[in-house]
């Protein structure tokens, strides 16, 4: 059945009206779709990171993140983070852990899950975005976006600041940088490599860089210049962030 011109025009206007008008939101929406889209909504994923096992489970708005390791006697230690609770078990028995120490475990486990699932966590209501513009890195055009967090709902590290570079062509998140103030202050720049699809989600490893100039001030302005430092050879490689042996349940 043919649609009339007014009907087609109405559908076109509705489609345009549904599109995000903010360039940061448009770039993020495209990136999330490319990296996994609806695959992030419900999954159970197991993997290894730095000689520890992680189990990341999400089902709609609920989640459970578990870090599994063994002590010197071979006894299993689990650090568990959910929507409503954070706790540690040793040998299956729940432990009484001081809040200050449990906060460190929580931050560590959540950090691993956060970076693994990027850019999906950028949909969180506490996330605030600023579109910086279009930049060229190694012959590709990228949407450069600054991300910071509202204090309410932003967690202990709400004053951290991130910058993301999304490929304008396909939406891939090829680079990111961040500054942090938890425990100490510093700035990092990460270059993605080894992309692989797991259950529809794009998992990436990263080369982790820091400024060669150790006196460089930890500021938003300098963070926004990390891509220029990278291209100018002013960053040094610190480590590689590698997640291995994925199992989708």
Please count the helical segments: 5
CATH class: Mainly Beta
Multimeric state:
single chain
| Structural class designation | alpha+beta
Organism: Arundinibacter roseus
InterPro entries: DUF6503
Protein name: Deoxyribose-phosphate aldolase
Q: Would you mind describing this structure in some detail?
A:
This protein has about 250 residues and is an alpha+beta fold. The chain has a single domain (about 25-249), classed as Clam (outer membrane lipoprotein receptor (LolB), chain A), CATH 2.50.20. About 25% of the residues lie in helices and about 45% in strands. It is built from 5 helices and 14 strands. The protein has helices at about 5-20, 25-35, 100-115, 220-225, 225-230; strands at about 40-50, 50-60, 60-70, 75-80, 85-90, 95, 125-135, 140-150, 160-165, 175-180, 185-200, 200-210, 235-240, 245-249. Strands 6-5-4-3-2-1-14 form a 7-stranded antiparallel β-sheet, with helices on one face. It has a 7-stranded antiparallel β-sheet with strand order 7-8-9-10-11-12-13. The longest helix is centred in the middle third of the chain and has 19 residues, at about 100-115. The chain is globular, with a radius of gyration of 20 Å. About 20% of the residues are buried.
